[in-house]
Design brief:
By secondary structure, the chain is mostly helical. The protein has one domain. The chain contains 2 helices and no strands. It has helices at residues 2-13, 17-32. Helix 1 (2-13) runs antiparallel to helix 2 (17-32). The radius of gyration is 12 Å and the shape is elongated.
């Protein structure tokens, strides 16, 4: 959750286009990643 929070912070507060694009790419990768099964 902290990773998502920091990515959203980057998307909404920086004026740096490259940093915003990188944050969008990382967020999209998180959405595509399989969810780990942490159950027994």
């Amino acid at each position: 959750m902290a990773v998502i929070r920091s990515l959203l912070f980057d998307l909404t507060t920086t004026g740096e286009r490259e940093r915003t694009d990188l944050a969008l790419d990382q967020f999209a990768a998180l959405l595509r990643a399989p969810i780990a099964n942490t159950g027994s």
